[in-house]
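Example S7 (structure tokens).
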């Protein structure tokens, strides 16, 4: 397991740095107001890519670690495909409705709509990447993850060589179009790998996925509010230059979050295998979570020590103040990493509805808390709210996870 974590953890750091290169280049090419718009859209694009595949990756991990027959596994693989598609169908209309309502408040509607659809397409590529990751195919995982940002950087470099004057829209489209193309190729490879032909009759035979994907989609939607709620709210409270500084800090913190998410996805299949074989499941979860947290803490300390040097190399001096925000936001990301493990533990028990109820309740509280903090104290108060919200989420999720496992008897 350790070798697997190191390989995929190193790959995740590489991918995170490559993805941050877009923000670094944008900070040199765009004025602060345009940079703020781009980062807002780019954050939505990245978060939604992960949100759309939430239920699918969890279901895939459970399938791969169970003792299923080949025919049953094929049926379950089909349900994984449709879980992802159905989640997209549930979430997209909700997001578009929200954007339609917010268009009267100065939101860059066209850019954000493009980010939503690009995020939906990106999820296709991420789903393929997770399939090959769970199957241990390191080369295919690296290719599927590195190809989209590499082509996108090439696209931006080509336009820059032509002396194109970038706006936030132009820059985002140059980034998103190669990613969408790679995503379609990845999805074709996924269907070919699993051997699934999309047709209506197969979809009708996958009715059991509807309930799972609906609750997973609802959970994912409110989890995205938890992840990006600070940036949504501060859009209405900060000026363009201030918002750009905070957004860069949030993206810097999201590098750490991306590494944690990839780490979680790498270790959860191993946890599921151990849970299948264990008779003392809660004790196993406690031991596993402690080791996981210590590893996350080590990554957190490395991040804090290297942040000054990293920012001074890749960002203009005018954005150096983002370091202060990024350090504190990283604390929230560390807490979020612990929550992710306990949410996976709940989903192992096939309780998506329970997790969704927790997420909706805590998510609504977190949104109200963030708005109140932004109104009373601006960005500094919102950073406090970000960590506090995730801490509440962690405590509630771990409490219900413990209730599920302590009460069971495994023979």
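Recovered sequence:
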């Amino acid at each position: 397991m350790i070798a697997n974590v190191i390989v995929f953890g190193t790959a995740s750091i590489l991918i995170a740095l490559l993805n941050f290169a877009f923000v670094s280049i944008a900070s040199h090419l765009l004025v602060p107001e345009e940079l703020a718009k781009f980062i807002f859209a780019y954050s939505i694009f990245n978060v939604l890519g992960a949100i759309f595949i939430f239920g699918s990756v969890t279901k895939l991990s459970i399938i791969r670690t169970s003792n299923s027959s080949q025919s049953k596994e094929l049926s379950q693989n089909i349900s994984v495909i449709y879980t992802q598609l159905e989640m997209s169908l549930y979430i997209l209309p909700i997001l578009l409705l929200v954007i339609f309502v917010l268009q009267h408040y100065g939101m860059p509607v066209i850019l954000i709509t493009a980010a939503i659809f690009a995020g939906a397409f990106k999820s296709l590529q991420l789903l393929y990447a997770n399939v090959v990751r769970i199957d241990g195919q390191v080369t295919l995982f690296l290719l599927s993850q590195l190809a989209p940002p590499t082509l996108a950087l090439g696209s931006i470099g080509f336009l820059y060589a032509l002396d194109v004057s970038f706006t936030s829209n132009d820059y985002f489209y140059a980034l998103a179009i190669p990613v969408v193309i790679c995503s379609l190729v990845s999805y074709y490879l996924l269907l070919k790998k699993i051997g699934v032909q999309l047709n209506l009759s197969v979809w009708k035979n996958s009715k059991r996925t509807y309930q799972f994907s609906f609750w997973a989609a609802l959970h994912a939607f409110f989890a995205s509010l938890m992840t990006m709620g600070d940036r949504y709210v501060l859009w209405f409270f900060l000026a363009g230059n201030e918002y750009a500084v905070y957004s860069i800090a949030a993206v810097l913190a999201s590098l750490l979050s991306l590494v944690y998410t990839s780490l979680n996805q790498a270790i959860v299949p191993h946890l599921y295998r151990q849970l299948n074989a264990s008779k003392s499941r809660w004790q196993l979860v406690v031991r596993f979570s402690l080791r996981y947290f210590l590893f996350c803490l080590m990554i957190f300390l490395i991040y804090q020590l290297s942040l000054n040097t990293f920012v001074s190399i890749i960002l203009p001096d005018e954005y150096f103040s983002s370091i202060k925000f990024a350090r504190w936001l990283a604390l929230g990301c560390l807490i979020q990493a612990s929550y992710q493990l306990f949410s996976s533990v709940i989903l192992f028990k096939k309780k998506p509805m329970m997790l969704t109820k927790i997420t909706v309740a805590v998510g609504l509280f977190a949104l109200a808390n963030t708005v109140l903090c932004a109104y009373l104290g601006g960005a500094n108060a919102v950073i406090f709210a970000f960590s506090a919200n995730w801490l509440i989420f962690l405590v509630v999720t771990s409490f219900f996870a413990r209730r599920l496992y302590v009460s069971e008897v495994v023979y």
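Notes on this example. The chain is about 85% helix and 0% strand.
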